[in-house]
Amino acid sequence: MTTSDPFDPGASPEPDGWTPDLESLDVPPTETAESSADVVDLGAARARRPIPAQRSAPDEAGDGDDETDRESVAIEPVALGVPVDPPDEIDAPAGAVRSVRAPMVPGWLRSRATIRAAARQTSRHAGYVAGFHALRAPKYLVLAMFWATVGFFRLVGRLLRWATAEEGNWALRQDAARRNDAPGWLQLDRARQRQSTTRWPILIVGAVLVLVAYAVLWFGPWPSLLRLAVFVATVVGLARFGRPADRPIVDRVSKGAAYRKLTAELVRRSLTSIGLAGINSAVAKDPGAISFPMEIHRDGPGHLAVIDLPYGVEAAEVVARRGRLASGLRLPLDQVWPEPAAGHTGRLALWVGHEPASKMRQPAWPLIRSGKVDVFEPFAFATTPRMTTVCVSLMFRNWLFGGQPGSGKTFALRLLVLAAALDPRVEIRGYELKGVGDFADLEPVLAEYGNGFDDDTIERAAGMVDWVYAECQRRSERIDYYRARGMAPEGKVTPKLASLKGSGLHPLVVFIDEAQELFTSRWGKTAGETLERAIKLGRALGVVILLGTQIPDKDSLPTGITRNVNSRFCLSVADQTANDMILGTSAYKNGYRATVFEPVTEAGWGILAGFGKAGARRTFEVFGPAVARVVARAVELRTGAGTLPTPTERARAVEVLDVLADVAAVWPLGEDKVWNETLCARLVEHRPDAYAGWKPAQLTAALSPHRISVGQIWGTDPTTGKGGNRRGVIHADILNAITERDRKRNG
Ligand SMILES: Nc1ncnc2c1ncn2[C@@H]1O[C@H](COP(=O)(O)OP(=O)(O)OP(=O)(O)O)[C@@H](O)[C@H]1O
Predict the structure, then answer these.
(1) Rounded to whole angstroms, what are the CA distances from 470 to 343, 474, 518?
(2) How many secondary structure helices (H) and strands (E) does the chain include?
(3) Residue 409 labelled as part of a binding site
(4) Other C-beta atoms within 10 Å of 472: how many?
(5) Is 446:508 a contact under the CB 8 Å cutoff?
(6) Ligand 1, closest atom to CA 600?
(7) In what order do the strands lie in the sheet containing 347-353?
(8) pLDDT tens across 532-553, in order?
(9) Rounded CA separation 743/737 (Å)
(10) What is the ipTM of this complex?
(11) What is the CATH number of domain 657-745?
(12) Which of 411, 451, 622 to mutate to test the pocket of ligand 1 (most atoms within 8 A of CB)?
């Protein structure tokens, strides 16, 4: 075993068996130490130094670690010299060269929210302690009086014993009596009498003085507050003297250490208990392997420790072991919030709350009672574990919400829709394919709404996706028009254009909750492709798409969509794959892991990405009457702005585009097979509002869920009169599909 203590940073770094040989230098050891004023010619000194014997590696020699083995090692004269030049310093890491200065303003004083949180926390605690003790005051009074009485008699007894000077002396006299030592006994008794003679007057005078002082205080012209204070102090003093050490009068406010101040030792202990070999082996070699680039400080309603982990250990690895970390700190899971810190991948920011997040009261969503939203500006959406508000925006964004059942994704998605409702310019359309009516309260402000997982609802949702894409195409023409007039310099919708009545560029928010129902249905493939195109095209055109899904695999959520979404909120998920499908590749590896959240118990918590640094956020919980209240305000705002959807508009919006029936209606008489492009031209004539801009490929996509195959068909171009092969459909296929559908519908 090595003799050097691995936890002693001052331990010699030299391996066992090697000691500097001072004699091998020409300068006597004493001179090296004491006559250091001599000028030494370094070149000559080096030349005179004997060539050191080859030093075997400690392990090879077998004496590197085990001192007891030394006897079996041949001890040869070791001729090593003291290094004349000091060894080169190991380069300090870049971050360590600059000293990290403490923030001028403490973290908790930096924003109003954190000051408010700290003040709220302190006053809440003080209020709790005051209430706790006030309730028990009568009990404390009775106990204090009882123990004060005991204390009084105990004090009197003690004073009497002191005055009689029996303490100690009595035992000695007894001993003398046992030994039949009469002179000794008499001598001890005389000593006691002498002491006693001086003590009695002191006691009597002291007692009289105390009594007089109390009488003066009691009957004199003193404020009764002073009398009360002295009385209380006397009672408390006597009670303290009278009560046994294990019988406290005042109850403890908190049992067990629910909150413990975060100290470096505590952090080290918890980090070494999470089972990361990289940390444990580094700390065993050097206890300073875990370092703190800044002091642990208060940060909102908790403490923040910024930690530099040992070389090679990533903060992400610690984040993944949040449960073990909480165990090491002996705290509930939702009180411990590790996340990667800025700087390098080995820097961890560990925030530990004063109390578990589930016990902390989240402030109400600021927009419930008052306020409007401008979708071009950020609005409150969530809170951090420190209870600071996180704002997000809707414009030029598409959102993906993912999480397992009960993680809170519908609430999160609905919060954005509620915010959109508070901007009267925004047109909102959406489907919830779960069928429980989570968005039913919002129906008055929705231009199109569907709820359910039946084929009809899913088909309508797919129809909405087609409509959104067609709307994007219409909008891109409009934006070209306004760009040419200098009103859309970046080719994007501006707040001015969004507000301009008749511009056709008002913000459009489209949501699909439980989107996996649509993408795994028979309309799924086409809907996925169309939505991907709409997402790519619509961002600049004021089209905001919000998707919620339980299952983020590639069948349930086309990867083309996941790749193009720029705002993501990943609530509790079961595994790394789901995590990375929602947050993007490598999110898990980089420490952004929504797998650490428990569904249901930590509902509403997730990792929000796309708004600065990603991190754990909890959405504002808005439900029941609060939703109704927001909707009522939204209805009022929209009525004032003239943008509240009328029942007729809503009915028209949800009318399903019956492509089969429309194709049958426009079919040219006497033809068996018709080109798609001919059909598209006829469809536009038939219903210009629905089919404007349709291309042959779109018709193919719309017919594919009905299992109608589109193939090459011989025909004649009516404009040129030339014959040719183009993509088209067969009349019999259309009629068969209609018969089949009707048969299914009729049961
Ligand atoms: N921000 C929040 N804070 C606290 N609780 C929340 C929050 N959001 C949601 N919850 C709770 O979680 C429950 C489930 O929420 P929600 O319906 O949004 O989950 P979900 O992920 O959509 O689940 P499912 O897929 O089963 O519908 C809600 O009833 C609510 O009680």
Answers:
(1) 46, 6, 19
(2) 26, 17
(3) yes
(4) 22
(5) no
(6) 12
(7) 297-298, 302-308, 347-353, 336-340
(8) 999 999 999 999 999 999 877 8
(9) 10
(10) 0.96
(11) 1.10.10
(12) 411
Question: Candidates 401, 410, 511: which one to mutate for ligand 1, based on the most atoms within 8 Å of Cβ?
Answer: 410
- pLDDT at position 449 is 92
Distance from the alpha carbon of residue 623 to the mean position of ligand 1, in angstroms: 10
Provide the 3-class DSSP secondary structure of residue 37.
coil
430-461 per-position pLDDT tens digit? 999 988 889 999 999 999 999 998 888 998 89
Q: List pocket residues of ligand 1, CB cut-off 6 Å.
A: 403, 405-411, 434, 550, 603-604, 618-619, 621
Span of 11-20, 44-53, 239-248, 263-272 with lowest mean pLDDT = 11-20
Return the residue whose CA atom lies nearest to atom 16 of ligand 1. Answer: 408
| Those residues with Cβ within 8 angstroms of residue 224's Cβ, 6 or more apart along the chain or in another chain | none
Taking residues 40-69, what's their average pLDDT? 43
Q: Which residue has the tokens 């508009």?
A: 649
What letters, b where the CB count within 10 A reaches 16 and e where it falls short, cover 250-289? eeeeeeeeebeebeeebbbebbbbbebebbbebbeeeeeb
Residue closest to 660 by CA, chosen among 579, 741, 585: 741
The SS3 call for residue 134 is helix
Residue 508 clears pLDDT 50, i.e. is over it: yes
| Pick from 342, 338, 371, 369: nearest CA to 353 | 338
What does 560-605 look like in DSSP terms, one character per residue? HHHHH--EEEEES-SSHHHHHHHH-TTTTTTT--GGGSPTTTTTTE
Alpha-helix runs per DSSP H in 380-425 = 409-421
Would you kindly state where each structural domain of the chain is located, as residue ranges? 1-87, 112-242, 264-359, 379-647, 657-745
Q: Is 406 annotated as a binding residue?
A: yes
Between CA 548 and CA 402 the distance in angstroms is 6
Tokens found for residue 487: 């009103």
Distances (CA, A) of 692 to 182, 292, 466: 130, 64, 12
| Coil/strand/helix, residue 374 | coil
Q: How far is the CA of 548 from the centre of ligand 1 (A)?
A: 12
* 138-188 confidence digits (pLDDT tens): 999 999 999 999 999 999 999 998 998 888 788 888 888 988 888 989 999
H/E element, 289: none
Q: How many Å lie between the centroid of ligand 1 and the Cα of residue 593?
A: 19
The token pair that represents 514 in the structure block: 């439980």
pLDDT tens column, 630-683: 999 999 999 999 999 887 777 666 566 788 888 999 998 888 889 998 999 999
CATH class of 379-647: alpha beta
Per the annotation, does 524 bind a ligand? Answer: no
Q: Is 20 annotated as a binding residue?
A: no
| 405 annotated as ligand-binding | yes
Per-residue pLDDT, 48: 52
> Concatenated DSSP letters for 49-94?
SPPPPPPPPHHHHT-SS-GGGGGGS------PPPPSSPPPPPPPPH
Distance of CA 235 to the CA centre of its chain: 51
Domain at 264-359, CATH class: alpha beta
